[in-house]
Design goal:
2 copies of one chain form a homodimer. The first copy, chain A, is α+β, with helices and mostly antiparallel strands and 252 residues long. Chain A contains 5 helices and 10 strands. In chain A, strands 1, 2, 3, 4, 5, 6, 7, 8, 9 and 10 form a 10-stranded mixed β-sheet that branches. Chain A is globular. At the A-B interface, α2 and β4 of A face α2 and β4 of B.
């Protein structure tokens, strides 16, 4: 038996998210069905580095599966791209040691949240940015975001139905930039809770609009209560950019 | 009467192009109908800096119209974005002198053609890049493209039904870069013929694949015969990036 990993890019708009659900289109179901075709009918179960929510995109989702069938990386990429729908693609493939697990082996993850803040829409980015008509106050937003960096209990910033045992996570990057006309929130950490990036960004949007002050953030973290944080920012602005592994796969 | 200009962004996939056609969706028809609504019912005729083909996109199309109705730039942007479909947006608006003409007043234009060359598809860019499975040989492509820069008769590189009186045009930039995993052809010139960028790029793709040699280009230009050049590259890879005017509108 051989263990493989795949690098996937997808537009999440048409799916209920990564995870397979009965009678609803999921990325997982599409990928497993494409793999079964490519591997000559052998059914496969695929594990992902994380379950992206409905509507969330990925540029660098990493997934893994075992198979008794031998396929070269290039054959997997070609074969999968020939059968996957237009909005899902395999960007790279490779064999990996049997002990590899896409979540447990990961050392970090990079998410990007994109906001278009102005009266002008941007049709060529539609569905991949969240639009707000009010210009963001990045001084306030950055002053607030600074409190998120480091090791914290993020209980206030996860979905109420998040089932993780501990909410302690470490964020080592929270960078907010304005390349031309959009605002990018680049968030990297060792792990993330359900909805965590979206609640963090939603709270920062609430800081920008004046609902919270930047210095309110420490108390919101301390409260460990989802009701104290801000709203959950819309899924379509979020993209899983990259999952980091000790071996650096798939390179640059 | 006041003359206005608008900066438009659009995804061309759903349209027969800029120009209005009976019983077919055009960008021009959408924009004129949106303007009529915003201007309280007054019918308007809009002129563009160029008629983008079916499927071609724009980040910076400039169009102009006259009206007896006074509207502030911000009211035009807001109003148009409220009524235009999702795949067309107004990015900026402004009053301009009555003598302004979006074609005649332009001093240059920038088009970008994007190619994804590899076995991996890219769902988040789908519809905005042209995909070829063979990796481009940029040394050959650049050696050929160098012959296009300057003032030439581009008769070999225009649609057979192009109606321009003279085919002499000046290209002052033909830059080919590979940012990460796509190839970009950035072409700037004082004016363009129908299909010109697409035939230039199509011919360069044929140089990459070996159908032509880079040193064949001068003879193809000299022939002034469309049949001597290469294929017309697909519309979806092409975007009108910017139209240059002496006053630099709309700024950066």
């Amino acid at each position: 038996v051989t263990r493989y990993r795949l690098l996937l890019e997808y537009d999440g708009a048409a799916y209920v998210g990564w995870q397979r659900q009965p009678d609803a289109p999921s990325i997982q179901a599409e990928v497993e069905s494409a793999l079964a075709q490519v591997l000559g009918g052998e059914p496969v179960m695929v594990t992902a580095s994380g379950r992206t929510d409905a509507g969330v995109h990925a540029l660098g989702q990493v997934v893994s599966f075992q198979s008794t069938v031998e396929r070269s990386p290039i054959a997997l990429v070609r074969g999968l791209n020939a059968v996957l729908p237009d909005d899902i693609a395999c960007r790279a493939a490779g064999e990996v040691e049997l002990a590899f697990h896409p979540i447990d082996s990961a050392v970090g993850k990079h998410y990007r949240y994109r906001v278009l803040d102005g009266v002008a829409r941007a049709p060529l980015r539609r569905g991949q940015v969240y639009q707000t008509h009010k210009r963001l106050d990045l001084d306030r937003v950055r002053a607030a975001a600074m409190h998120f960096v480091g090791c914290h209990d993020f209980s206030s910033f996860r979905a109420s139905r998040c089932s993780a045992v501990t909410a302690v996570r470490t964020l080592y990057r929270f960078e907010i930039t304005r390349p031309v006309d959009e605002v990018r929130f680049d968030v990297e950490g060792t792990g993330f809770l359900r909805h965590m990036v979206r609640v963090l960004v939603g709270t920062l949007l609430d800081v920008s609009s004046g609902r919270f002050e930047p210095e309110d953030i420490p108390a919101i973290l301390d409260a460990a209560d989802r009701r104290r944080a801000g709203r959950t920012a819309a899924a379509q602005g979020l993209t899983l950019m990259r999952v980091h592994y000790p071996d650096g796969w798939p390179g640059v």
